[in-house]
From TrEMBL:
Source species: Tsukamurella spumae
CDD domains linked: AKR_AKR13A_13D (cd19076)
Name the record gives this protein: Aldo/keto reductase
Record carries keyword Oxidoreductase: yes
Ranges for domain NADP-dependent oxidoreductase: 15-317
Alphabetical list of InterPro entries matching this protein: AKR (IPR020471), Aldo-Keto_reductase (IPR050791), NAD(P)_OxRdtase_dom_sf (IPR036812), NADP_OxRdtase_dom (IPR023210)
Pfam families: Aldo_ket_red
């Protein structure tokens, strides 16, 4: 079983599960396999499950609803609000007005079929609304018993401190991986100052850090949104895959030393996740997957022992290309 870590007053598994790709953004998914993946995660000790109202305009919450209801007392359910989507579930703006919060909470509760949300995030801070006002309205939902704890996603250090002055913040969710380190420049320190844990999304670089070139090639076809990401294009992609080869080489060294669980090979993805876990006991990554095979690989990272030298070598890697296209909303 997985070790546990804490996010505010919540005790959760050291690795959570990002559920967005089970119904949204990464091309077509197999719903039966996704449901089996949810059950396998629970059986392996995963207790933190992450979704948002913007994923498919609520479709992801609806997909998770039967699982959440069946295992309500065994899991910690996190969801988010703050984006405005068009009818095709594409983000077109942010709306953090306080008068909007109660309706968003009620809509998520209705879609999920539950009475309370364990961890409720502001998905992005609305630059047109003081964060204190939005968080104040979120705090009212805590007082009403509809939300247990509050979080922020991709927030600045200043916004984290301002929000925490209104109500305790249990978690900061931000993209964080060997290839994405922005959060280290202020937000992570601010989160620690206010007692919030860090919940990294895309800790595998949206699949790039797994060293699975077939999967990378597949992502660049069809309607997968990674096709638009500069990091996944042209010379940037080739440079990044060369860096991934270095991660794969560390995995091979660990395998040769017998570091894999039960003698199994250590994978590049496990090394990448082990690096994130090694950055602090207050960090709970939520790698996303809709397949049991990938889930098992991800969970194996908790047992991968990185040396100080390996951590330093991985820390020195720097990705080529931006993580989002120009002029697009920063989103997950």
């Amino acid at each position: 079983m997985l070790p546990t870590r804490t996010l505010g007053d919540l005790q959760v598994s050291a690795l959570g599960l990002g559920c967005m790709g089970m119904s949204h953004a990464y091309g077509s998914a197999d719903p039966d396999e996704a449901r089996a993946t949810l059950e396998a995660a629970l059986a392996a000790g995963v207790t933190l499950y992450d979704t948002a109202d913007m994923y498919g305009n609520g479709a992801n919450e609806e997909f998770l609803a039967p699982f959440v209801q069946a295992h309500r007392d065994e899991i910690v359910l996190a969801t988010k609000f703050g984006f405005v989507n068009d009818e095709n579930a594409r983000p077109v703006g942010l709306d953090g007005r306080p008068e909007r919060v109660a309706g968003c909470v009620d809509a998520s509760l209705r879609r999920l079929g539950i009475d309370v949300i364990d961890l409720y995030y502001l998905h992005r801070v609305d630059p047109q609304v003081p964060v204190e006002e939005t968080v104040g309205a979120m705090a009212e939902q805590v007082a009403a018993g509809k939300v247990r704890t509050l979080g922020l996603s991709e927030a600045s250090a200043e916004d984290i401190r301002r929000a925490a002055a209104v109500h305790p913040i249990a978690a900061l969710q931000s993209e964080y991986s060997i290839f994405t380190r922005d959060v280290e420049d202020g937000p992570l320190q601010a989160a620690r100052e206010v007692g919030a844990g860090l919940v990294p999304f895309s800790p595998l670089g949206r699949g790039l850090l797994t060293a699975d070139r077939k999967a990378v090639a597949a992502a660049l076809g069809g309607d997968d949104f990674r096709r638009s990401i500069p990091r996944w294009q042209g010379e940037n992609l080739e440079a990044n895959l060369r860096l991934v080869d270095r991660i794969d080489a560390i995995a091979a060294d660990l395998t040769a030393s017998g570091a894999g669980a039960d003698g199994a090979p250590v994978t590049a993805g496990q090394v990448a996740l082990a690096w994130v876990l090694a950055q602090g006991d207050d960090i709970v990554p939520i790698p996303g997957t809709a397949r049991r095979k990938h889930l098992a690989d991800n969970l194996g990272s908790a047992a991968v022992p990185l040396s100080d030298g390996q951590v330093a070598e991985l820390t020195a890697l720097s990705a080529a290309g931006e993580r989002y296209p120009e002029r697009t909303l920063h989103r997950r």
